[in-house]
Amino acid sequence: MSSNIEKSYEEAKQLYAKHGVDVDRALETLANIKISVHCWQGDDVRGFLNRDQELTGGISVTGNYPGAARTPEELRADLEKAFSLIPGKHKVNLHAIYADTDEKVELDRIEPKHYEKWVSWAKEQGLGLDFNPTCFSHEYSKDGFTLSHPDPNIRKFWIDHCKASRRIGAYFGEQLGQTCVTNVWIPDGYKDTPADRLAPRQRLKDALDEVFAEPINPAYNLDAVESKLFGIGAEAYTVGSHEFYMGYALKNNKLICLDAGHFHPTEVISNKLSALSLFAEGILLHVSRPVRWDSDHVVTLDDELLDIARELVRGNLLGKTHIGLDFFDASINRVAAWVIGTRNTIKALLRALLEPVEALKKAELEGDYTTRLALTEEFKFYPFGAVWDYYCEKSGVPVREEWLAEVKAYERNVLLKR
Ligand code: RNT
Ligand code: ZN
């Protein structure tokens, strides 16, 4: 440990202690928070099954930065590189299309064996795994409908895919000894004003009931459902809206997945967490950064990210919230994208853990809003950077921007040779 880092850390600790903030304890809490890092940033949401299919579902990746992973081996190597630059032990979030198999398997027939290599890798790396059925980029989703499709045969295909996905989630959970979250997101919706808004929602509800009919040990797998406001090509109507899934999840004890880009532009998910926590079984976050639309930009340390972290810490919601990332940018180095977004999410949590929450809550209860505002603002300049540096150093990962040189070397030696 460099003596400068240690010295700055000790000084920071004393400053924070004056306001009742125990920095060592904050770092212990932080070390126990797992971020679910989405595999799909590594290859622009292409996957390995159906690689001939274009990306559909109303989501879009732009940019053609060289070096995208083309095989499971390359993707795992890239993830390993990223994790070597991120403090803490985390999870990898897989989509069904990332199956690692030579078999030509259809999505309704996937089985745990198709993901075995991911599991042995995760074991070796000490990582957890999460899962998602892939209800897009497929022949049977090309008209924009999956679980709510009017054709019962197509609907059944997607129902079977989602059922198979839950079993794979349970296999991950059982094998790795940590619960897998399997998140259902579907792109279903209409480009223009529908004549019937109800029937597709009725079909989706019934389809989900079938998907979730099989009981699965919640220690192995938890189900989540993700709502959305609109997608490209589905601007007028989304079957799985927020109200739809909030109702469904509350009634059926599912996790509610909130994606930061899935609401009206001035609507924030940070403000939803406390309310949902009072009623929901649990929450899954898709931390993302919408720029003017659901653009899935790399997460920066912006006000909303800080607010999400604050809400989790202040409301004591870390126990019932699963923090996942969801962004995909092909215009910059993809390993760097993971590192930047994940480190930022951890930094936001650290900052939230270093705030004088008790003092702020006390001031608020006493009606002393002056103190509340003053302390909030002064704390924005407290030396959290010293604590972050210490945490990185102690965790054996590069301090500050030192990680960038490692990514650049990896780009030269590995990515540009692809
Ligand atoms: C799409 C949703 C969904 C996807 C991933 C790939 O708008 O956010 O979570 O981004 O499943
Ligand atoms: Zn999402």
Defining key terms:
single chain, alpha/beta, TIM Barrel, 2 domains, 14 helices, binds L-rhamnitol, binds zinc ion
Give the quaternary arrangement of the chains: single chain
* SSE succession: HHEHEHEHEEHEEHEHEHEHHHHH
The level-1 CATH class of the largest domain: Alpha Beta
Strand numbers in spatial order across the main sheet: 3-2-1-10-9-8-6-4
Helical content, roughly? 40-55%
Can you list the ligands bound to this structure? L-rhamnitol, zinc ion
Architecture overview:
With 418 residues, the chain is α/β, with parallel strands linked by helices. It folds into two domains: 1-21 and 354-418, no CATH class; 34-342, TIM Barrel (Alpha-Beta Barrel), CATH 3.20.20.150. Helices cover 43% and strands 11% of the residues. The chain contains 14 helices and ten strands. It has an eight-stranded parallel beta sheet with strand order 3-2-1-10-9-8-6-4. It has a two-stranded antiparallel ribbon with strand order 5-7. Helix 8 runs parallel beside helix 9 (303-314), helix 9 crosses helix 10 (334-353) and helix 11 runs antiparallel to helix 12 (369-379). The longest helix has 25 residues, at 152-176. It is globular, with a radius of gyration of 22 Å. The relative contact order is 0.15. The mean pLDDT is 98. The structure holds L-rhamnitol (RNT) and zinc ion. Zinc ion binds next to loops. L-rhamnitol binds next to loops.
